[in-house]
Design a protein that fits this description.
The complex is a heterodimer of chains A (223) and B (610). Chain A is mostly beta strands and 223 residues long. Chain A folds into 2 domains: 28-116, Carboxypeptidase-like, regulatory domain (Immunoglobulin-like, Sandwich), CATH 2.60.40; 121-221, Sandwich (Immunoglobulin-like). Chain A has one helix at 2-14, and strands at residues 28-36, 39-40, 51-55, 65-68, 74-79, 82-88, 103-107, 111-112, 115-116, 121-130, 135-144, 151-159, 171-175, 181-187, 201-208, 215-216, 220-221. Chain B is α+β, with helices and mostly antiparallel strands and 610 residues long. Chain B has helices at residues 7-17, 36-40, 43-54, 98-113, 119-144, 173-187, 204-225, 246-262, 276-285, 308-312, 330-335, 370-375, 466-479, 483-496, 507-517, 524-530, 534-537, 595-600; strands spanning 75-77, 293-297, 326-328, 376-377, 382-383, 386-387, 393-398, 401-405, 439-440, 461-465, 550-557, 568-574. The chains are: A mainly beta (223), B alpha+beta (610).
Chain lengths: 223, 610
């Protein structure tokens, strides 16, 4: 018994380090939203599609830290203190490429920072509801922000989880008419999920002819 | 008195004894690692090193991955649930293999010093190795644009050396295509002029095909990239070829392709004039007496086999548990034109939206381009002498309307009539059943046992064949405004398919012809990229029928007393296993550069949109 104790004590010496090459994990958080006029814009939040990039100058090898934007336009990154540059990936989001500005962040502790962009369109006055006849109705206004842009399509999307976008959905319909004040009503009675107990979520999206990603409304729980 | 031999000393002496031995058991030459003298002193060893390189240059869409056929617009994934593909990956079909380039360069150094080969043989082996190196650069260029060209140098590094001398910046996109072309110019005279066994080794004509293909890619990139509203380019030309280069590249392509045609070693043969579909199938899939294929990835049993036949064989013909992984989609089938109508849309309904009834399921495909039945197993067509029944169900009359009667697989009704075929097609998520209405025929091996896990198939995968020489020549001539020559070459290919001569043509005829002639042969993706058409075809909009996948469901009419009883009708419908529109974004025209490569070589610049 005594022998084991001695051996254990001796072995545990091997596990002691001097802390020279051990960093503490980063603790400072950059948090924020992609905004237009201070209001967050909705994007596709799945498949790491919309990315911002965080650069830190002054090192020999520099790779950006990708910062993924969630579907409500929010993002966050946990990094070490220091000076960072935040910039959107080129031609990535549903906003004007030239409108992206490099935001310089002096990080010391947690920081809130918003990333301001100029989207081609915004979606306002969104009202989405499911009525008793299993019809979904959606009313919204598309506001043109950039005069040269045209609507390539707008779409109404439904999913059984709170993640709703052009690729992740159980039901989606696309419209190409030039209406900017939209009022839709669609029959969802053929959907299996409409008759079960689970919840349903919906949102609308608008894709301009000048960007590859649509801008989306907020996600609405309709059932 | 001290002991003369204390215990420690004895122990030490004994332990020392462990490290001596009476023979050189541990000093053997390794038999798994061969040095240069052993390799370059033996021609068979030289050949086997070369064989190793041939085995490492198979990239892109090919029969080693059935899945890769389902991500474009040629086939749909029928194995289990939906694929949820929407956009394309940043590294799709990306090739970056400087390891192999270094190995080839080491091989060249050894080869040039060997004394056992005649000067002539040395040059021919060297030409083969340099061809493979050019092929690697070509595969890198078409996925990423200009990349570092390292020449023949075998670099070495020891600590303290200046590492920046080893960091070579990316070449321009023009530069890498010019390098490929100049390499072929230097080596093609040393290669054999005869077709090689199973087209597995390169000869002069295959090398010229690479030259023609590289030049036509570069020419169309120079031409069509600059016709975009915002051409894709980088500041120093790593991506983006000036429009002024187009003419030069088109001339090189035309010249190289016509050299291959004029060689007389290969021909667009019509050996079976009574069955042009069979003729087409055999021209591409039969290795014996083949006059079509110039260079291929060959397979041979045992050891070198491929699972494509096993994965995709119709369930009714399967020899093992695997089957029906993927099936060609209606989009492709309709792109094959009719002999008397260039619009290949299938006539399932008449002008009043009533069904068109066919006596036999194959009748709807009558007068189609003969290549269709040679590339795709159509509903009711034979495979290995037995029909492949594709029946989604029965169409029955209810209150004057036609409705579907669908059952479990292979079930019959009370009158012993089949309801849903064991082959499908179905819309459910079940595995091993067809969901598109068609099976592959091209590259599906007819030999016994080819669809078993124990044996697999020895079907080759052609990389260059003579039809491509004609279509490259036609495209280059068209772009050089030589319409007569362009028509002459394209009509040669069309005649083998039983189609009428074109009397005038545009690029869209080339797009169409290459789409159907080279279905499943790793051309579609690269073609649409170089013509800058990919983002318009796969635009991510679900109302664009080209971006969506469609299936064709055949139904047998069961309506006793009705004049159409026993006939067949067809439903065109969205392919359920791929609900999203294909979306090729601008960033997909060039693969992304990996950050790890930049860390190793900071002179490598990123691609646009990255």
């Amino acid at each position: 018994m005594k022998k084991i104790l001695i051996i254990t004590t001796l072995l545990s010496v091997l596990l002691v380090g001097c802390g020279k090459d051990n960093y503490d994990e980063p603790t400072s958080v950059i948090r924020g939203k992609v905004t237009y006029n201070g209001k967050a814009i909705g994007v596709r939040g799945t498949a790491e599609v919309i990315q911002l990039q965080l650069y830190q100058d002054g090192y020999q090898l520099k790779d950006h830290i990708p910062v993924y934007v969630g579907q409500d336009g929010s993002f966050s990154a946990k990094v070490f203190d220091g000076q960072y540059k935040l910039v959107a990936r080129s031609n990535n989001g549903p906003w004007v490429n030239a409108s992206q500005d490099t935001v310089i962040i002096n990080l010391k502790g947690n920081t809130e920072v918003n990333y301001e962009v100029t989207p081609y369109f915004t979606i306002d006055n969104v009202a989405i509801a499911l009525n008793a006849d299993k019809n979904i109705s959606a009313n919204f206004t598309i506001n043109k922000v950039v005069q040269s842009a045209t609507v390539r399509y707008y779409s109404l999307i439904v999913n059984k989880t709170a993640f709703v976008d052009d690729a992740i959905n159980i039901w989606r319909k696309e419209y190409t008419d030039p209406n900017l004040s939209v009022s839709l009503s669609e029959d969802l009675s053929s959907l299996n999920q409409i008759n079960t107990n689970g919840p349903l979520f919906a949102r609308v999206g608008v894709r301009s002819n000048l960007s590859e990603q649509p801008i989306y409304s907020e996600v609405v729980k309709i059932k | 008195m001290k002991k003369l031999f204390n215990r420690k000393l004895i122990l030490f002496t004994l332990v020392c004894g462990l490290f001596t031995s009476c023979n050189d058991l541990l000093d053997q030459e390794p038999d798994k690692i061969l040095n240069n003298d052993q390799i370059f002193g033996d021609e068979i060893m030289i050949k086997s090193v070369l064989a190793n390189y041939y085995g490492r240059v198979h990239w892109g869409q090919n029969t080693t991955s059935s899945y890769n056929y389902t991500i474009l617009d040629e086939a749909g994934k029928s194995d289990g649930g939906p694929d949820n593909i929407n956009s394309y990956g940043d590294a799709l079909f990306r090739v970056y293999d400087y390891t192999l380039i270094r190995h080839i360069n080491e091989f060249l150094v050894g080869l040039r010093t060997t004394e056992i080969l005649s000067a002539e043989k040395k040059l021919s082996y060297e030409a083969e190795a340099r061809f493979l190196r050019a092929w690697i650069y070509f595969n890198m260029a078409r996925s990423m644009g200009g990349m570092p060209i390292v020449g023949d140098d075998v670099f070495s590094y020891s600590p303290g050396d200046d590492i920046t001398a080893l960091q070579i910046p990316r070449s321009t996109e023009v530069g890498i295509y010019d390098y490929i072309i100049s390499e072929i110019d230097e080596i093609n005279g040393y290669l054999s002029v005869e077709p090689t066994i199973n087209a597995s080794r390169i000869n002069k004509w295959g090398a010229l095909m690479l030259k023609a293909r590289a030049a036509i890619y570069a020419g169309s990139l120079a031409n069509y990239n600059n016709k975009m509203t915002t051409p894709i380019k980088t500041d120093n030309g790593e991506v983006g070829i000036p429009a002024s280069e187009a003419q030069r590249f088109y001339e090189i392509a035309l010249n190289a392709a016509e050299q291959v045609i004029a060689s007389g070693k290969y021909s667009i043969a019509i050996k079976k004039s009574d069955d042009l579909s069979r003729n087409f199938y055999e021209a591409i899939n039969f290795k014996e007496n083949n006059a079509e294929v110039i260079w291929a990835r060959d397979y041979i049993y045992p050891g070198q086999t491929v699972g494509f036949t096993r994965e995709n064989i119709p369930p009714s013909h399967a020899e093992d548990i695997d089957r029906a992984y993927a099936g060609p989609i209606l989009n492709l089938v309709e792109d094959f034109e009719y002999i008397n109508n260039r619009d290949g849309s299938l006539k399932t309904k008449d002008a009043n939206d009533n069904y068109v009834f066919y006596d036999n399921p194959l009748d709807i495909f009558n007068n189609k381009d003969a290549r269709l039945a040679g590339s795709v197993i159509l509903p009711g067509a034979d495979f290995k002498g037995n029909p492949v029944v594709l029946q989604a169900g029965q169409k029955i009359l209810q209150n004057g309307n036609w409705v579907n009667n669908i059952s479990d697989l292979g079930k019959v009704d009370d009158d012993n009539n089949l309801i849903t075929s064991a082959n499908g097609p179905v819309t459910s998520n079940v595995q091993y059943v067809n969901k598109t209405g068609f099976f592959f025929r091209k590259f599906l091996d007819e030999n016994a046992g080819a669809s078993t896990r124990g044996k697999n198939s020895a079907m080759w995968f052609p990389r260059f064949r003579i039809a491509e020489a004609y279509l490259i020549a036609s495209e280059a001539a068209l772009e050089l405004s030589n319409l007569t020559k362009a028509l002459e070459h394209i009509n040669k290919v069309r005649n083998r398919a039983g189609l009428n001569d074109l009397i005038t043509m545009t690029l869209s005829d080339i797009v169409q012809e290459r789409r159907v002639e080279f279905a499943f042969e790793d051309h579609r993706y690269w073609d649409l990229k170089r013509w800058r058409l990919a983002h318009t075809v796969w635009d991510g909009i679900s109302q664009n029928p080209k971006a969506m996948q469609y299936a064709l469901f055949p139904y047998k009419v069961v309506a006793p007393g009705n004049p159409n009883n026993g006939k067949w009708v067809f439903d065109k419908q969205l392919f359920v296993n791929s609900p999203n529109a294909r979306f090729f974004q601008m960033k997909n025209y060039y693969n992304f550069i990996d950050q790890g490569w930049i860390n190793n070589n900071p002179k490598i610049v990123r691609n646009p949109f990255q």
